[in-house]
Write a structure and sequence with these properties.
The protein is α+β, with helices and mostly antiparallel strands and 76 residues long. The chain has two helices and two strands; from the N terminus they run αβαβ. Strand 1, helix 2 and strand 2 form a beta-alpha-beta unit.
């Protein structure tokens, strides 16, 4: 179960095409094989449908910008 959780945290994907998303989800599950049998009850395959090239922005909350402080010694 720990390996499945680690994979869910570190192996993920996004695609604009619904068939590609479905195939990636199935491939993710097949790659883990029998380990998925002992999965946690809230297992979610981290492959999502979306367009990473989309430039349209929507305001988040009441602001059109979200600022995140990044310490200067963190890599970009």
């Amino acid at each position: 179960a720990e390996i499945v959780e680690t994979c869910a945290d570190r192996v993920f994907g996004i695609d604009v095409h619904p068939v590609a998303v479905a195939l990636a989800r199935v491939t993710w599950l097949l790659a883990l094989g029998d380990l998925v049998q002992d999965r946690p009850p809230t297992l979610s395959v981290p492959v999502y449908m979306g367009d990473s090239m989309q430039w349209n922005l929507r305001p988040l909350g009441a602001s059109a910008e979200v600022l995140v402080d990044v310490p200067p010694n963190d890599p970009p």
